[in-house]
Amino acid sequence: MKFQELNLSDTLLEAISFMGFEEATPIQEQAIPAIKQHKDLIACAQTGTGKTAAFILPVLDELAKENTHKTKVLVIVPTRELALQIDQQIQGFAYYTPVESIAIYGGGTGSEWDQQKRALTSGTEIIVATPGKLISHLNMGYVKFEDVKYLILDEADRMLDMGFYDDIQKIITYLPKERQTLMFSATIPPKIKQLAAKTLKNPVEITIGMSKPAEGVLQAAYLTHENQKTPLIINLITGKPEVKSILIFSSTKKKVSDIVRGLRAKGFNVEGISSDLEQGKREEVLRGFRSKRTRVLVATDVLSRGIDIKDIDIVINYDVPGDAEDYVHRVGRTARAASSGLAITLINENDMFSFQQIEALIGNEVMKLPLPEELGEGPSWNPKRMRRDFSGHRGFRRKGKPHTNKKRNFKGRPKRN
Predict the structure, then answer these.
(1) Which among 18, 29, 48, 89 is most buried, taking Cβ atoms within 10 Å?
(2) 126 and 11 in a common domain
């Protein structure tokens, strides 16, 4: 379906065309008409399906007609990276309109706090915020949300995974009861259903491509011992100048540092990113990767959702993701929209059962490639040998053994990277 068929204003259509979009994706095709009919919505859609435009375009279409310079839209997201990404997309789509937006997130300077405060008090039309930082402003007493018409919860499942359920409920108490609420989530577990029941009114339900990697992703895996992983990556990307953008996911911050150190020793242009980095440094690293000044980026799962980096040639899972859904989001960093890409997973003997569960989830057996001869033999495929408790968290325990060595946070969840 062409965007012209979705009854959007000429101003928005001009911006959409300028940004290089022509046809609506399935989530946009289904969500935009429902939102324009002022219905609540719960949509299940994976990374890379165009869901940001699905909720931003119809909202912008309405705001451009009003031109009131009051806060009308509140978008709640789990991470600062996603907040920045959505804010950037809003600015692109709203280029020919008077609508303004701002991203509100933690980790900034005092001047950024002042800028956020001004936006919240002066009435910036669209606020994109992480729950914790927004509550910090709400607690100060100067935030007024009485004119909010749209509440949008993006990556709702990830927000609940991160423990933001109570924060979301608190934020909602500051909003008008008469509003339109839109919820987007990659999965619909029981907690999401519970949140939807409390938050939405007779919502339209849409499910798009749940738990399936994009069709353009070529998936492959190598069976490796742990000490073969970095040499394998070096083997795969050496002498291939056409591969300009490589994203490597690791399960821990320490491994990020180890991988970066190992690749730099071989002369690769590589940077690492994790929650240890200050926000300014994170943005600098991401700019370098987006612009192709940095060829290889090594990251923890802080990047697996919500970062829109185009033209990534290869995504490499250095570790098998602990959650099968995370696999879908990791490999979704390549083959964005209609493009193609390669996703490679390195599987050691301890992660075979977990990867088998991922294959069951996506409904496809991923081809296992032989290691280069110079690296020696890897482990044999035997997912039952190291069967684990596939509970959705990293640090699975072997069956029958107590799990006592995992550090916990105050809510009893495993600490996240």
Answers:
(1) 48
(2) yes
Amino acid (one-letter) located at 14: E
Residue listed under structure tokens 């600015």: 91
Query: Rg of the Cα trace of the chain?
Result: 22
Instruction: Give me the residue label for tokens 């040639």.
Output: 313
Q: Which of 169, 196, 302, 292 shows the shortest CA–CA distance to 242? A: 292
Of 82, 76, 51, whose CA–CA distance to 127 is shortest?
A: 76
- Same domain? For 134 and 263 the reply is no
Structure tokens at 199: 């938050």
pLDDT tens figures, 107-133: 766 788 999 999 999 889 999 999 999
Q: Which of 328, 319, 332, 335 is nearest to 396 (CA)?
A: 319
Alpha-carbon span 299 to 317, nearest angstrom: 10
Together in a domain, 88 and 124: yes
For residue 340, the SS3 value is: coil
Encoded tokens for 345: 């997973």
Number of other residues whose CB lies within 10 A of the CB of residue 218: 16
pLDDT at residue 137 is higher than 90: yes
Show which of 375, 392, 410 is a domain's final residue: 375
Residue the block writes with tokens 């009435």: 123
Read off the amino acid at residue 231: P
In this predicted model, what pLDDT tens digit does every residue of 327-341 receive, in sequence order? 776 776 665 544 567
Give me the domain span that covers residue 303.
217-375
**How many domains in the chain?**
2
